[in-house]
């Protein structure tokens, strides 16, 4: 992924007030932010070398990321290190594989998940996509996996300081 060099610490006022938020609350936040592109559209960049992302907000309870995807770009199979999360597609369409199946996630649709969730998100369309992601507590680690005949194999652990 390609990170933006700016990372504002101010953000939405719709977030939780104390402690980790529920996946449902995170989905509401992601959906509301995705539905109002006037707050973030000017930030979006497209990068042919990898997904572009920028943290829009971070505090002790949650964080918000904006991600752009060109056709063919993917997260790879990963978890969120024990954080709950949600993402909403603001523009375009994405595909999500959560080990139990694959689903299309189009503009205006939101997916929420708990702390043990593993998935791969990718742009299989022919057009760019933009999504808003919200995590609580903020991500500290993400584990990357590979599917094998005997199950999941841990490939790497990424820590927050690497993003």
From TrEMBL:
Pfam families membership: CDO_I
Top-level division of the source organism's lineage: Bacteria
Region (Disordered): 1-22
Keywords: Dioxygenase, Iron, Metal-binding, Oxidoreductase
Similarity field: Belongs to the cysteine dioxygenase family.
InterPro entries xrefs: CDO_1, RmlC-like_jellyroll, RmlC_Cupin_sf
Any one Gene Ontology molecular-function term assigned to this protein's record: dioxygenase activity
Name of the protein in its database record: Cysteine dioxygenase family protein
Gene3D superfamilies linked: Jelly Rolls (2.60.120.10)
């Amino acid at each position: 992924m390609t990170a933006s060099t700016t990372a504002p610490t101010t953000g939405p006022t719709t977030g939780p007030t104390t402690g980790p938020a529920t996946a449902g609350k995170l989905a509401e936040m992601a959906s509301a932010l995705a539905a109002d592109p006037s707050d973030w559209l000017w930030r979006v960049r497209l990068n042919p070398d990898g997904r572009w992302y920028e943290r829009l907000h971070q505090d002790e309870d949650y964080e918000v990321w904006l991600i752009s995807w060109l056709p063919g770009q993917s997260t790879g199979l990963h978890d969120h290190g024990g954080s709950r999360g949600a993402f909403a597609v603001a523009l375009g369409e994405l595909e999500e594989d959560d080990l139990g199946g694959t689903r299309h996630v189009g503009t205006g649709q939101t997916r929420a998940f708990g702390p043990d969730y593993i998935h791969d998100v990718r742009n299989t369309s022919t057009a760019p996509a933009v999504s808003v992601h919200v995590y609580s507590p903020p991500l500290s680690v993400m584990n990357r996996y590979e599917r094998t005949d005997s199950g999941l194999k841990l490939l790497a652990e990424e820590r927050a300081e690497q993003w």
